Amino acid sequence: MYWQAEIETMPRPELEALQLRRLQEVVRRVATTVPFYRQALAEAGVSPDDIRSLADARRLPFTTNADLRANYPDGLLAIPRQQVTRLHTSSGTTGKPKALFFSRRDVDQAAELIARCLVMTGCTAEDVLQNMMTYGLFTGALVLHYGAEKVGMLVIPAGPGNSERQLMLMQDFRTTVFHTTPSYALYLAEFIRKRGLDPRKDLALRKGLVGAEAHSEETRRKIEEALGIDAYNSYGLSEMNGPGVAFECEHKSGLHLWEDQYLLEIIDPVTGVPLADGERGELVLTSLTREAMPLLRYRTRDLTSVIPAPCPCGRTHRRLARITGRSDDMLVVRGVNLYPQQIERVLMSIPELGSNYLIHLRGLDELTVKVEFAASGFDGRVENLVRLEERVVEKLRAEILVKPKVELSAPGTLPVSEGKAKRVVDERVL
Ligand code: DLL
What we know:
With 430 residues, the protein is an alpha/beta fold. The protein has helices at residues 5-8, 12-33, 35-44, 65-70, 104-120, 139-151, 163-172, 182-194, 199-202, 217-227, 340-348, 382-400, and strands spanning 84-90, 98-103, 128-131, 154-156, 177-180, 207-211, 230-237, 242-248, 255-257, 262-267, 281-287, 298-304, 306-307, 319-320, 331-333, 336-338, 353-362, 366-373, 405-409, 424-426.
């Protein structure tokens, strides 16, 4: 099933011709309406007329997170202020957020893309969607909400947290699909289990749309098994509308990125050199159709690769491999480079462990992995706990090549956040 079959299955030569036309248009537009880009293009020695092929995109300047912050609040706006219909923001760890503007057409276009994604996972107007993302300045809930309404689903704007109420809504309104972060999906699964409910019998859930956080295949499997559903990976970022940039289809083997809307490149995060399909690097996106605030070659810092083969679903838009983290997530511990997701993958593959964990860096270079054990994973005997702890240490050491300290704790003892989970606390005094 397709939402916009003609676009979703457009032959590559046609799709690339459409991309080129849109790229030329957007470069011309920002060159005349956004002083920041006028200057950046001049510095790069490129004029809009120089863009004659898609490969010429590589001559365009990059846009970075720092550029967005430096131009806060509205320095990158490409349309008159009166034509802006919505503001979202994306908060970083410090200081002012990034401001992201939408025109009426941008809001509608974002909803169309979400509708494509939902239909791609097999959702229909018969479905009841419980949207447990945060409503408000965050794009996650609102952008998906409007797309789901387009499909004709019954949308429950539940918002995050309050598991008791989430469960009540699921039971009373026979929710079939939910939308949340992978960390909350795992938390909720445990909550439901503790209530003595069997999701397969007591709930109508069929699918989970999980995104906004990096997560491993092991985490997906854990969510699916605990809730008896299919979980689909959803990728997006506020700078490109929020959710709906790339999403898995029913084959669950990579995320189709909507190439009629976004020009994709994978580059070496250090040198900026373009990488070939199949090679892992940083995803760089150009918004081809956004009116209010199009961005040229935005450095997402997300690490992924393009899956070179076509997908059996018939969509011609290329797939991204699961995002394995961000280039700035990398931790250097005792001289060894490691990504939090490597730790997550190991923890999620050990059935005696629960789903909540925290990576704590302290002192000079001390790495402690704090993780809850599963309620069913501990029989109350201390020696078994010690043995489990040792096993976790060994498995982690084999994966990350550094020996961490592991602290096991009882289910429900580590902090749970309502939005994106904070998994790394770095308090080193290096
Ligand atoms: O998280 C948009 C979104 C909402 C996507 C709901 C999916 C579902 P931001 O707050 O701007 O926007 O954060 C974007 O989150 O650059 C990635 O680092 C990370 N991220 C988002 N989805 C995934 C995913 C939303 N499926 C940043 N896998 C991105 C890995 C993800 N990382």
